[in-house]
Amino acid sequence: MRPRAALLLLGLGPTGCLDRTPFGATGPDDAGIAVIPATVFLEPGAAVALGATVGPTGGGGVVWESDAPGVATVSADGRVLAVAPGQAQIRATNSRGAGRAVVTVVEPVPPVRSWRVAHESLTDVTLLGLWSVDPATSFAVGQLGTILRSTDGGVTWARMAVADSSDLVGVWASAPDNVYAVGTGGTILHFDGQSWSRMPSPTGNTLLEVWGLAADDIYAVGAGVALHYNGTAWSRLAGTESAELWAVWGTDPANLFAAGQNGVLFRLVGARWSPLASPTSLLLLGLWGSGPENIFAVGIQGTVLRWDGVRWSRMPAPTRADLFAIWGGSASNILAVGNSGAMVSYNGSAWSLVPQSATGENLRAVHAAPQGAFEVAGWDGTTLRRQPSGTWALGAAGPLLFDVATGPGGARYAVGGNGAVLRGVAASWSPLPVPTPRTLFGAATDAGSLVVVGDSGTILSYDGAVWRNDSFDGQPLLRSIWLDGAGGGFIVGAAGTTLRRDGSRWAEVPPVTERFLRHVWGLGPSDVWAVGDGGAAVHWDGSVWRVVPTPTDSVLRGVWGSGPRDVFAVGAAGTILRYDGVRWYAMPNPAKRDLRAVWGTGPTDVYAAGEGGVLLRFDGAKWTALVSPTTGLLLSFQEGAADAPVVSGGRGLILEGLR
Q: For the chain, which residues make up each domain, given as ranges?
């Protein structure tokens, strides 16, 4: 942080001490006039209008004057013009009273001129279907018409051009140039090796899976519908009109099975699907088998069923996680995947958990080509591949990155959805093994280590080699952390949850509000702010937390300040508030987008970011919209090189400001 900003944090201006006399509700001199704002910071040449509210004692119109016109002048209508660095008091008086504002003029600060995209993933949509045509070529499909292709065994992926925005749920291929994808609204797409095109479909119902025995013998199932493709046209199959089917698979035309909602199981008999007795009423989502007498179905709550050629029966499973997909390379090499990165494998005699730390995302699809490795896809554009060593490597991922902080080795760390952690060194960002499948919302620097907080009371500390677990089990979501650099700090979260650290231990502090507190930030151990839902703002003075009124009931999501009389809060519907040492007041915003974060280097170099890629800068006089390189969601700031901001957000996005 530059020395100028450091002085302001101590309450000092460039010309000496700021007056520490507390401002009352209407000013320090009299109860008659309130001047808003009570503190102003400007660069030479900038101007801002002050407002004067006459109190109940009356006294008529006000007269404005400056005690240092060489620093700042004021017009008859209260418009202040900054002239040169220094400090001036602007007084508003009438016959009954007076009020004042302190104007500090500071040296100009060069703004951020442009932004560099330091990291961004292909997509953040949920990938719902995956098919490996051969050991090198794979296709993954998902929401909003997303189709990815890998030609190197899942190491890298590229997005394919698709003139369709339907959600795609299933994909199957007989060859790299004969690929089918199905989805909402009866969508059926075909890839011929050159481009994707929409096929005529006999249904408008959602199709949830597609699978085939050959290029002229393909099946699709979905919500109250089952289809067959004979190489020329798609046609309906009868028998499933009242069922919602999520999976279809078979070994040959005489052994084709489908499964779905409420545990329903069907077998194709001729041109009609016939129901089978099911040992469960739970949703079934995946099917695979090694032969007609060894077929498996998986579903929610860790459900695993097996068909032995005569009947379906339950199997013991080592997890209660929802399982969404199953595939195998042989009868003794089967993998099922599901929520929170869950994986279970079958070795021919028993199911067991598969430990992996590549992702904590919810996994939705798994496949392996003959002689190929397992590949997996899921939420936030995530793809995984199993390496020859048996470990899992991340191919693509676009998690929400909620916060960024400096950590071990001076590197920057971005944390986010389902335990995602990215490490940034110079211009390169790379994923770390996930320490937890829980979402991480906040991060802070702690004497060279990194401390992160998240869902379900998660508190983890990382020293560059090992994660230490300091979690408060049973606690609600922890949303934000601030540390003072001297062993103290606060964590805030849902239902007003507030934890305080004094040394090495965290302890719960009785909350002063039941509202969700979404961000905490402080100037020092005795000057800390937290903001949250319903316009909540609470302040810690070193002894107690107190609720401070704000002029909004909007959700507040970020807070930051350059000093005790210059604090900003941002939130929903474009809300921007400033605390001037006396009160919070609303500021005009040129972009009405929801704002998620605020940060700066000083009172005339403040930035806000939020939805739709919005980026704003405050120069002490007004907020201005900046040209943004993204339309994605922006969630947090951290100080980067040369006092420029680093911004993190959706789709694994990290922006670096350039001055």
A: 3-105, 122-396, 418-658
Per CATH, the architecture of 3-105 is what? Answer: Sandwich (2.60)
For 68, the token pair is 């240092």
Q: Give the rounded distance of the alpha carbon of 396 from its chain centre.
A: 16
Q: What is the pTM of this model?
A: 0.90
Q: What is the pLDDT averaged over residues 225-240?
A: 98
Quick one: pLDDT at residue 16? 31
Of the candidate ranges 54-68, 197-211, 456-470, the one whose mean pLDDT is the lowest? 54-68
Fill in the DSSP letter of residue 514: -
User: What Rg value do the Cα atoms of the chain yield, rounded?
Assistant: 30
Residues 6+ apart with CB under 8 A from 633: 400, 596, 610, 611, 612, 613, 649, 650
Tokens 């062993």 belong to 487
Q: Looking at 208-343, list the stretches that DSSP marks H as alpha helix, in order from N- to C-terminal side.
A: none
153: number of Cβ within 10 Å: 19
Closest Cα to residue 517, out of 502, 540, 489, 537?
Answer: 537
CA dist 320 and 366 (Å) reads 19
429 touches 422 (CB < 8 A): yes
What 3-state DSSP class applies to 437? coil
Residue 268's identity, in one-letter code, is L
In words, the CATH class of domain 122-396 is mainly beta
What is the CATH code of the structural domain delimited by 418-658? 2.130.10.10
- Residue 59: is its pLDDT beyond 90? no
pLDDT tens digits for 143-157?
999 999 999 999 999
Structural tokens at position 458 = 């998660």
Query: What is the mean predicted confidence (pLDDT) over 23-35?
Result: 54
Kind and range of the H or E element at 3? helix 3-9
Q: Let me know: does 239 contact 273? Beta carbons within 8 Å.
A: yes
